[in-house]
Specification:
Chain C: Belongs to the ABC transporter superfamily. The complex is a heterotetramer of chains A (about 350), B (about 300), C (about 525) and D (about 325). By secondary structure, chain A is mainly α. Chain A is built from 13 helices and no strands. Chain A has helices spanning about 1-30, 35-45, 50-75, 80-100, 105-130, 135-160, 190-205, 210-220, 220-225, 230-255, 270-280, 285-305, 310-335. In chain A, helix 4 runs antiparallel to helix 5 and helix 4 (about 80-100) packs across helix 10. The longest helix of chain A has 30 residues, at about 105-130. Mean pLDDT of chain A is about 85; it is low at about 330-345. In chain B, helix 1 runs parallel beside helix 8 (about 240-250). Chain B starts with a strand and ends in a 10-residue tail after the last helix. The mean pLDDT of chain B is about 90. With about 325 residues, chain D is mainly α. Chain D contains 15 helices and 2 strands. In chain D, strands 1-2 form a two-stranded antiparallel ribbon. The chains are: A mainly alpha (about 350), B alpha/beta (about 300), C alpha/beta (about 525), D mainly alpha (about 325). Bound molecules: adenosine-5'-triphosphate (2 copies) and magnesium ion (2 copies).
Chain lengths: ~350, ~300, ~525, ~325
């Protein structure tokens, strides 16, 4: 308990330190740090609409974060969540505008398409990782670029709606993911994300399959020795991670945008990965780190309007916070792992 | 009464956006209005909140909007806040709640294409040109707005010089001048000696490549003649500064901007024009110049209809 | 406690205390090492031997106490200072770089350079000279990754010599060697002292200590409980000093309850990581209630044999049968399910997840079985109960079932593995190096457990590089060399010389009574 | 045929060299960290600040060479932060690398806004690029002369660095130590080689080259700075580093493959294939390369021949050692 308290305290101090540095940066661009902070808070939590806006930003980060958590737990690094999200978003939209089906069924079908697209998009890197140990960090990063280009191609060259927008036709209302409140686009995606976080947490800590994945991530040789089929498990873990990544795209397409366009959801995949890393791969912790990032994103929107500081300042502060926290997490770890050999990056 | 003006876009840093900012700065200085620029970035999820943040307080009398990706958020917000005047720049939508400032970039590009085609036909008669009989086009991303330039350019070239081949390529990004320069080198290598850039910062690479290769390029949106002096043959200007300033002036003067009205800037109004760069102009033969004037008149009079992709 | 110096002291440690947090690893240790002698240090696992040597080598800083070298007080803030003072250390775990050549490894950290660039030719030449001078045969051009453990150790010693060490510390140097290799090593060590150098030598093998050392110091619970000339002591004195009680090492009594054949291996072939042939046609059988020992120098296919038998490595040819049923080519999971338990040789890599709790380590392999889990949900209460029971039964020294495995000492980690593998429903147990690096007290317990398993009618294949262990436990001993079985020796009549020759790949003159007598 | 002629000619070779150079520079930088056992995904950000400050420096001083120095200094600063966090504080290198990339993106834009009042791109303001080097007497060499002359200095630097680095790793003490620290840190530690120091040095050397790569992008390849102008080249370099394992020669081959597919794909566009598909070509080439190389490592025959050849020739056989959680149990 006190350990946990210590670590929270440490993280808090690290964030304060980063904010201090951030304040200096803000001063250099001639704005009052206090005003920026107040605007940020106001933008993130100033009214029910803004809180909803924050949660709206949190949702995709959270779901992507969970996708990342799944892969981390298995000792794998799916950095291609961005690509799975784009693929999921596109194919959910495609089902959404191509078919005319009864309401809930349509939405479920579109969501399944998102999940399948996410899985399909990671299937090849997953296969090669499982079978030939091909580094999944690089293959999934590269696949991101391809996913973005392919979905752009499909959007603009094949399925473009008429008019000047680079986007697909809108989906039918029957495929909408219902909104939670009348005053915001915040939708069931948030509930899906929260349920997923708890579900994934319970899966990993309480079930025998979750145990198998956990041990594979912690010590693959031990897991292999214990009779766990590493190849199959690696493949399944990556596929599951990709499925959740695709789901994130489905939620964005069906819950928020109701269509697919260029610049559909850039950066959420990476933010999710970082949120998961900061939470040390814990899905419950990821809820909070995702909320933190969501608040920063949504708060910074008001910044452009109300101050002379730009959103990039927030990007800088966000990066500083990540750096400070990442150092802080591991200062504590350092006490126990003193050997140099343990600190090698596992490919 | 104070007039508050806002502009929202993700492209303030690129040619056309720069022109808009210029117009607003002028309005700030000459008309004493207050100006707020809101940079959208590129995250689709943010747009609606950004519009809400702008419109909610009701303090802005006129809001300029530029960028097709903002259209959905714009229409939603314009409907929800009928008291705020939204002006959509560079296109016309169905919505009756929005004022439109439309630029006929296809017309200007038509002339650019005609110039390039006519010059390419002259071939090695002209300093720095070969006999490739081809002209190039480097777009940023392959999106409808950019294609609008391209179809005009293509039509202009085909009309003025039917035998000249057009090689059109897209960099896939507006942020990679190195790629722009590389693409241009590739086009030069394949026989194009004049390349038209419609690619934002990527396009700067196109212009620089023309200087490096000793060939020619055509600028876009604003006067780019001085980016690579002696190698930028012309610039296709979209005089957004003038258009924006005039609209702000109308508001200051108390005129109402009719919702749904379309203010078109084209060759006829002079809102769009092809500027021959002075340092290259004397290399351009008189017959080419005459032909350009003739085509311009034909477009202005409606004799030639230039195709478009953004309606 | 210290010995009155007859010759000048090479090393004198005065009241050394070293703490790790609240834990005292070395407490007020005085140690005097005479120049030109071989000084052995023994003690149970965790007694503080390595810690003390690390202090002497500058790797750790003592909290209290002084270090005197050749009659001078020294402070050793880092290994470089220790090296400068003429101390060299051969670590328990070798620290060689596999992709570099022998010469590069030897000269690593003190490269010979010409014009700013490393002079490979000179390094090779010097290595060859040195290896000749001290009788440590190596090929300076070979990549270390391709060499055997025995040769790796020679390289480690060369590394120390090339740095001009006069005082050489060896931490458990024989743990991985064949008897012949050990004997060669002792020869080398004697050569060193003959040239006036001093050797400090840590071992768990008391025979070796008796054989080679001039003086012995015994550490217990971090304290130096005795330093005496070896000649004054017997083996059982040493044991008593170490653990405070008597321990027997005799061959354990047999109960002739051998049953039907459980494991049958026929003409087994397989390849290793580098795709080189590791097993070349191995055949044997293990009966219920029988312990079959596999002797051999590490790296002659024993590990691969255990891995093939447990399904971790595919065989390229041959068949495996368990209770008459063919299990060739089954996965590790299926082989486990068929009834094979496996105590892996590399316990820290395969045997446990060091960061997981003891209970989570005990769950491995049976997480899908009832009552450990029902409908895929882990039965946490049952797991906790079982863990507590096993901690008690196997005498695992820990703070509790939720302590991470890494907080335990090596011997106790091994007990976790045994507790897991010995309590399953396996008919056949593959036990690889059960007591490597484990102290005598724990060894005895582990041996007891193995015998109990045998008495319970399990078929046991025991792989060990320690001959005395095999002699103590096994009914029959198969000697492996180069991926084949060189010969078989009855556990009752063991001739170490003969086993040694088999281990070295030499088939001795047939002595009818001994080969094939099962 | 005509199409082929249009695609494959000397200008394609030249373009390949041009497109290869920046990736090569940054990948060679990454080879230091890769060899030292650090996974540096922050190359992208180092390159970006390198480019930005090279431009700022040039505008401030009027000399592109001083600009290059500024760019390098900025990249070194980022590399220092990377080393501080990753080496001293043992933070996760992926988190730190990604965060530094984000920082670089945000910082360059913020500063651009603060200094120039706009975002987007910087050119003009008296910005001058590095001069192109015309090698003397190359006219006599025909197409070869055409191929090797007329690049900006950092292009030559990139290619010359390949043999220099090969020598560095094989014959210099620092190079040897870097390899040892990456392959077997315990060995380095035992010999009194400071792992921390070597990793700092590797990170800084990496920053040096990444900064040069950025400076080349802004002052050699083009003469301007644009938001996010590194455009994924740093990530490409990381991909190459993984399948080259940091070996300079393999890095060169990987970069040439990339450069070639990049240059070729740009040309393919003129055949009327959609730019989106064509632009995916280099990434697909990388992916296929990655998969093919890992597939190839499978067949036993090849492995075995390589292994035995390795022993005979005592060439470094490049078996990637699976990094295990602990090496403590080595028999
Ligand atoms: N980070 C740590 N913090 C505290 N204690 C530790 C730490 N790491 C290891 N230990 C202690 O080190 C011991 C394990 O060390 P090691 O594996 O060398 O044991 P050992 O002395 O070889 O014991 P054994 O006789 O069982 O092999 C445990 O007693 C454990 O308490
Ligand atoms: N780095 C460390 N941190 C905490 N405790 C340690 C550390 N190293 C050793 N210890 C403690 O010191 C004790 C003595 O360890 P040491 O390695 O010296 O034992 P040893 O006598 O060499 O045992 P073995 O015979 O197994 O090698 C260990 O039991 C352990 O508890
Ligand atoms: Mg020890
Ligand atoms: Mg031990």
């Amino acid at each position: 308990m006190s350990d946990r308290f210590d670590s929270l305290l440490g993280q808090g101090l690290a964030i304060l330190f980063a904010l201090g540095l951030g304040a200096l940066v803000i001063l250099t661009v001639d704005e009052s740090p206090m005003k920026v902070l107040v605007t940020l808070l106001n933008g993130a939590f100033g009214s029910p609409e803004r809180i909803a806006g924050t949660l709206l930003q949190t949702t995709p980060i959270l779901i992507c974060g969970i996708a990342a958590c799944i892969s981390f737990r298995g000792g794998l690094f799916n950095i291609g969540i961005e690509g799975q999200l784009f693929m999921g978003g596109f194919w959910a939209t495609w089902v959404g505008f191509s078919f005319n089906l009864p309401p809930i069924l349509h939405m479920l079908l579109a969501m399944s398409a998102a999940v399948i697209a996410g899985m399909a998009w990671i299937a090849i890197p997953a296969f090669f990782r499982a079978r030939y140990k091909t580094n999944e960090v690089v293959s999934t990063i590269l696949a991101n670029y391809v996913a973005v280009l392919i979905t752009s191609y499909l959007t603009i060259n094949i399925f473009k709606r008429s008019g000047g927008q680079s986007e697909t036709p809108p989906i039918f209302e029957s495929a909408y993911l219902p909104e939670l409140f009348s005053f915001s686009r915040l939708n069931w995606g948030l509930i899906i994300g929260l349920a997923l976080a708890i579900g994934v947490y319970l899966f990993f800590t309480r079930t025998s399959r979750g145990y198998a994945v956990t041990e594979m991530g912690a010590n693959p040789k031990f897991a292999e020795y214990g009779g766990i089929d590493i190849r199959k498990q690696v493949f399944l873990v990556l596929i599951a991670s990709g499925a959740v990544g695709g789901l994130a795209g489905g939620v964005e397409a069906l819950g928020v945008h109701h269509r697919f366009m260029e610049g559909f959801a850039p950066g959420f995949g990476f933010d999710g990965v970082i949120a998961a890393l900061l939470a040390n791969g814990n899905p419950i912790g990821t809820i909070f780190t995702a909320l933190f990032f969501g608040a920063l994103r949504s708060g910074s929107l008001l910044l452009e309007v109300d101050t002379t500081a730009s959103r990039e300042i927030i990007t800088v502060i966000q990066a500083l916070i990540i750096l400070a926290v990442s150092a802080q997490i591991t200062i504590r770890r350092k006490a126990s792992d003193s050997t140099a050999g343990e600190r090698r990056w596992k490919f | 009464k104070d007039v508050n003006v806002a502009a929202i876009s993700g492209y303030f840093s690129q040619g056309f956006g720069v022109a808009i900012v210029e117009g607003l700065k002028k309005a700030e200085k000459d008309l004493g209005v207050k100006v707020k620029l809101v940079d959208t970035g590129n995250r689709a999820l943010d747009y609606e909140e950004q519009f809400n943040n702008l419109a909610k307080g009701g303090e802005y009398d006129i809001v300029f909007v530029m960028g097709w990706e903002l259209v959905d958020a714009l229409q939603k917000t314009a409907e929800a806040y009928p008291n705020t005047k939204f002006v959509f720049i560079d296109g016309v939508l169905d919505s009756k709640h929005v004022v439109y400032a439309n630029f006929a970039q296809n017309e200007g590009s038509f002339l650019a294409g005609a110039l390039a085609g006519l010059m390419a036909e002259k071939g090695s008669d002209i300093d720095g040109l070969g006999d490739g009989k081809a002209i190039g086009f480097v777009g940023g991303r392959d999106i409808p707005v950019i294609r609008d330039f391209m179809v005009g350019y293509e039509q202009g070239a085909k009309t003025a010089a039917p035998d000249v081949r057009l090689d059109a390529v897209f960099a896939g990004t507006f942020d990679d001048p190195a790629k722009g320069s590389e693409l241009t080198m590739a086009l030069y290598g394949q026989g194009s000696d004049i390349v038209y850039n419609v690619a934002g910062p990527t396009g700067e690479g196109v212009l620089q490549a023309s200087a490096a290769a000793g060939k020619y390029s055509i600028g876009v949106d604003v006067n780019q003649c001085n980016v690579a002096p002696g190698h930028v043959m012309a610039s296709m200007l979209k005089n957004a500064n003038v258009a924006v300033f005039d609209l702000v002036k109308d508001v200051v003067d108390g005129k109402t901007l009719e919702p749904g009205s379309v203010h078109t800037a084209n060759l006829k109004t002079g809102g769009v024009e092809l500027l021959l760069c002075p340092d290259v102009a004397d290399k351009i033969p008189a017959d080419v110049k005459a032909k350009l004037e003739e085509l311009k008149a034909d477009i202005a009079s409606g004799k030639i209809k230039v195709a478009t992709t953004t309606q | 406690m210290s010995v009155t110096p007859a010759t000048p002291l090479a090393i004198e440690l005065k009241s050394i205390t070293k703490r790790f947090g609240a834990f005292v690893a070395n407490e007020d240790v005085n140690l005097a090492v005479e120049s030109g002698k071989i000084h052995a240090i023994i003690g149970e696992n965790g007694a503080g031997k390595t810690t003390l040597m690390n202090v002497l080598f500058g790797l750790l800083q003592p909290d209290e106490g002084e270090i005197w070298i050749d009659g001078e007080k020294k402070s050793l803030p880092n290994p470089a200072a220790a090296i400068a003072a003429g101390i060299g250390m051969v670590h328990q775990h070798f620290k060689l770089v596999p992709s570099l050549t022998v010469a590069e490894n030897v000269f690593l950290g003190m490269e010979i350079r010409k014009g700013g660039l490393i002079d490979h030719a000179a390094q090779i030449k010097k290595t060859a000279e040195l290896s000749k001078q001290f009788g440590l045969q190596v090929d300076p051009n070979e990549r270390v990754g391709l060499l055997s453990v025995g040769i790796e150790q020679r390289i480690e010693i060369l590394k120390v010599l090339v740095r001009g060490a006069r005082i050489i510390i060896l931490d458990e140097p024989t743990a991985v060697l064949t008897p012949q290799e050990s004997r060669e090593l002792f020869q080398t060590l004697r050569g060193f002292v003959a040239q006036g150098m001093t050797v400090i030598f840590i071992s768990h093998h008391l025979e070796e200590v008796m054989e080679v050392s001039d003086t012995v110091s015994v550490l217990r619970l971090g304290k130096n409980v005795a330093s005496r000339p070896t000649a004054e002591l017997t083996k059982s004195d040493l044991v008593q000093l170490m653990v405070g009680r008597l321990v027997s090492f005799d061959r354990l009594p047999r109960t002739p309850t051998i049953g039907k054949t459980v494991l049958e291996v026929e003409d087994l072939w397989c390849r290793d990581e580098r795709q080189l042939q590791a097993l070349r046609g191995v055949s044997f059988g293990v009966k219920a209630g029988e312990i079959v020992g596999i002797a051999g120098v590490a790296g002659n296919g024993q590990t691969e044999l255990a891995e093939v038998l447990s399904g971790l490595r595919p065989s390229s040819h041959g068949s495996l049968k368990l209770n008459g049923r063919t299990i060739t080519g089954l996965s590790a999971r299926d082989i486990r399910a068929a009834g094979v338990g496996h105590v892996p040789g590399d316990r820290l890599v395969r045997g446990v997840d060091r960061n997981a709790s003891i209970s989570m380590n005990l769950l491995m392999g049976r997480q899908d079985q009832s009552p450990w889990s029902t409908h895929g949900i882990i039965n946490r209460r049952y797991l906790l109960e079982q863990t507590q029971a096993l901690i008690k039964r196997f005498d695992i020294r820990t703070r509790g079932p939720e302590s991470p495995a890494k907080s335990l000492s090596g011997g106790n980690i091994q007990k976790i593995v045994l507790a897991r593998e010995f309590t399953g429903s396996a008919d056949c147990l593959l036990i690889d190096q059960p007591t490597r690096g484990v102290d005598i007290g724990a060894q005895e317990q582990i041996h007891g457990e193995i015998m109990r398993q045998r008495d319970a009618g399990k078929a046991i294949l025991l792989i060990s590089v320690q001959l005395d262990e095999l002699i103590r436990l096994a009914d029959r001993i198969l000697v492996m060399f180069g991926g084949t079985i060189m010969g078989e020796i009855s556990g009752d009549r063991v001739d170490e010389e003969e086993i040694g020759m088999l281990m070295a790949g030499v088939v001795p003159e047939p002595r009818p009574n001994q080969v094939g007598a099962a | 045929m005509e199409v082929l002629e249009r695609l494959l000619n000397i200008s394609l070779v030249i373009a390949t060299i041009r497109t290869t150079a920046p990736i090569l520079l940054v990948a060679l930088g990454g080879s230091f960290t890769t060899k030292a056992g650090i996974f540096n995904i922050g190359l992208e950000g180092q390159m970006l600040v390198g480019a930005f400050f090279a431009v700022i420096g040039t505008i401030a001083t009027g000399s592109p060479w001083l600009g290059v120095l500024c760019g390098v200094a900025a990249a070194l600063t980022l590399a220092l932060i990377f080393a501080l966090l990753v080496v001293s504080f043992k933070a996760n290198e992926v988190v730190v690398g990604l965060a530094l990339n984000i920082l670089a993106g945000g910082l360059t834009v913020s500063l651009m806004k603060a200094i120039f009042g706009t975002r987007g791109s910087i050119f003009g303001h008296g910005l001058v690029g590095l001069p192109a080097l015309k090698l003397p007497n190359v006219k006599d060499l025909g197409w070869f002369g055409q191929m090797i002359s007329g690049y900006t200095p950092l292009v030559y630097a990139a290619f010359i660095l390949v043999p220099v680095l090969i020598l560095f790793y094989n014959r210099s003490r620092l190079g040897l130590y870097i390899r040892v620290v990456g392959e077997k840190p315990e060995a380095a530690e035992a010999l009194g080689i400071s792992i921390t120091r070597i990793r700092y040095i590797s990170s800084l050397l990496c920053g040096l080259l990444a900064g040069l790569a950025g400076a080349h992008l802004a002052l050699g390849y083009t003469t301007m700075f644009t938001e996010n102008m590194s455009s994924g080249r740093g990530f490409m370099a990381v991909a190459i580093l993984i399948f080259s394992n940091g070996d300079p020669l393999k890095i060169l081959l990987g970069c040439l493959l990339f450069g070639f597919s990049d240059a070729l794909s740009l040309r393919l566009q003129t055949l009327g294939i959609s730019s989106y598909l064509v632009l995916a070509v280099p990434y697909l080439v990388a992916l296929i390369g990655l998969f093919a190389l890992s597939y190839r490592s499978r067949p036993r025959l090849i492995q075995e021949t390589l292994a035995s050849m390795g022993r005979v020739l005592s060439v470094k056989s490049n078996t990637i050692k699976p990094a295990t959680a602990t090496d403590a149990s080595k028999p």
